[in-house]
Predict the structure.
Amino acid sequence: SENGGEPEMISTLDPAREETSHRWPYALPGGTHLLITVKTARIPTFDEAKIGLLELATGKVDILIQGGTSAQYMSTGHLVYGRSDQLFAVPFDLASLTVKGTPSAVLENIDTVDVNGCAQFALSADGDLAYLSAGEDQAKLELVWQHLSGKTSTLDYVNPYSFATSFSPDGKLLAAMTPAANDKLFITDFERQITTRLTSTPGNDSRPIWSPDGTQ
């Protein structure tokens, strides 16, 4: 209500499908259903997420599209969604709430945020499209040494998109989290200049800490 009130949960994650979040809700005309993006625990990117249809009265979620994120409804009778830095459209029957036909790419170079699956576009009621081109929101990340003298120098690092970094006690290895649909840990060997994946567990892994002797 516009006058406020208690928040009410409208969706429940399905552990049998290893669902970890429902996100990017979009209300369909009529107000009885939402389009949502369903994230599961093992997908490497949001290209493998699912577009779901959430019935508000029951909380039931039906999967409409395998592989996509941030779906919106277009007045021409289409669902529009992001995948692989592209926008796809597929015919959608609003009466039966079903997808009709095969998706087709309609626009390339659409920015999609890797860590949360937000495809950067918006549709107006009359069908106009606003979007952010891929790469425009990307910041350059650098790791630097901060010396006791105050001098800084760039660290020669082969995996620049990493966070929550942790050096091994001998300073030769760096454990770090690389952001993705499900964040994973990697270890970089500076002497050999190689990076290897450390974790493959479902869900997000972050904030690695070395044991004092560097063996774990």
Q: What stands out?
A: The radius of gyration is 21 Å.
